[in-house]
Amino acid sequence: MDKFRIIGGLPLKGRVSISGAKISALPCMAAAVLTPETVTLHNLPYVRDIITQRRLLEDIGATVLTPELRTHKIAAAHIELFEAPYELVKTMRASVLALGPLLARFGKAKVSLPGGCAIGTRPIDLHLAGFEKLGAEVRLEAGNVVARAPKDGRLRGGEVHFGKVTVTGTENLMMAATLAWGRTTLYNAAREPEIADLAELLNKMGARVRGAGSSTIQIEGVAALGGAEHTIIPDRIETGTFIIAGAITRGELEIKDCRPEHSAALIAKLRDAGVELQELNPSTLSVVGNLKLTASDVTTEPHPGFPTDMQAQYMALMTQAGGQSTIIETVFENRFMHTSELQRMGARIHSDGSRATVQGVTKLTGAPVIASDLRASASLVLAGLVAEGETIIDRVYHIDRGYEKIEAKLRAVGANIERIRESVTAPLSQTAEPAAIV
Ligand code: EPU
């Protein structure tokens, strides 16, 4: 398993370009299963989860061509397998996004039930209850979810009220409803920009989806969908991570190819804390890290609130802000795994259940630390950039799942970071099994 070595203390200066959003690319790739025609997706990030999703599509019989590194042409004309096996689901929970499209087009789907993970129990009960509302019969068989449409093979439009806002749940139901008989209404739907991006792709394929981006989404089912071409939106979490990288190192970064309006809550919060942020144009932000940052409390919420996916990185920043900040995590029940690693670097953090208090300013010192999930890894990188001395981050495969070449992007703006590749000839005792991941 690779590690990162970071020597902290250098202000980052220069320009960084943002990649496509992984959490939009994953459902858009799954949506290609809804049609026998070719779906071309541009601006896919070059990250591990996209490679896993491609493998899933190929395993079930789709062909995926890659005319350019960030473009996939997906043709699901000859699907032979209607399932996502445990081997894939256990490494990437987003494999459950195969359920909606398979069920909608073929009337049957089997997906291994994902277990809990590093950030919480993460059930998919709301997805399954939603499919039942569309007329599917859903059973649990030997750890697998087996879903079947009514006898004619087609789902029925229905009303789905989500008891809790769920991003992939909304996406799964939205995809399932595109080919159902009649109208489906999703209430308390997720409003993340990635939902609107998926709806845009579906509509290009011939679907009739209205209201995506709001909490009520209406879908008029159609008999068939066709091919389409679509460019994935920029990654707002990578954008936020680089904003904080500029702020925490007291640097000056220009962040291009992003969509500032997708990060409004984060930007407002960072301005509150004293970070100077300017929107240079609709796709470029500049960030200047002030010497004096002030502690500011935050509570994570579904979009348009402060994203849970930025909570760990914000906590790293708060160790460098004067005063005490309280961070409340409301989306996942166990998303403070990074606190103990930050503490090892000298951070003064007290966490209890869903609440953490951070006392700043603390001088962080480099230490060996272990990444526990994707965003926790990002917070350790940020802490390493500002810490005195050397930080070694173990298990960076977590970060490779969702950040495209983060070390190369950081190095290009002045960070002292390198990847230490584990030798393929290392004795077995030195290699640990990768933990189950998010
Ligand atoms: N939940 C249920 N039942 C369900 C579905 C969700 O109780 O059937 C609960 C979850 O346990 C959680 C909350 O609802 O407490 C929200 O979960 P959600 O379903 O929205 O999360 P997700 O769709 O599994 C996506 C992103 C996550 C991101 C969350 C929240 C993808 C592939 N993943 O997960 O991204 O944190 O939404 O915004 O879209 C990441 O990128 O590091 C990451 C974990």
Walk me through the topology:
Blueprint: E1 3-7, E2 13-17, H1 22-31, E3 38-42, H2 48-59, E4 63-68, E5 71-75, E6 83-84, H3 86-89, H4 99-106, E7 108-112, H5 125-133, E8 137-141, E9 144-148, E10 159-161, H6 167-177, E11 183-187, H7 193-204, E12 208-210, E13 216-220, E14 228-231, H8 236-248, E15 252-256, H9 264-272, E16 276-281, E17 284-288, E18 298-299, H10 311-318, E19 323-328, H11 337-344, E20 348-352, E21 355-360, E22 368-370, H12 374-386, E23 390-394, H13 397-400, H14 406-412, E24 416-420
Parallel strand pairs: 2-15, 3-14, 6-7, 10-11, 18-19, 22-23
Antiparallel strand pairs: 1-23, 1-24, 3-5, 4-5, 7-9, 8-9, 11-13, 12-13, 15-17, 16-17, 19-21, 20-21
The structure holds uridine-diphosphate-2(N-acetylglucosaminyl) butyric acid.
Q: What does this entry look like structurally?
A:
- The protein has 438 residues and is an alpha/beta fold.
- It is 29% helix and 25% strand.
- It contains 14 helices and 24 strands.
- Helix 11 packs parallel to helix 12.
- It is elongated and about 65 Å long.
- The relative contact order is 0.16.
- The site of uridine-diphosphate-2(N-acetylglucosaminyl) butyric acid has 24 residues, from helix 1, helix 5, helix 6 and helix 12.
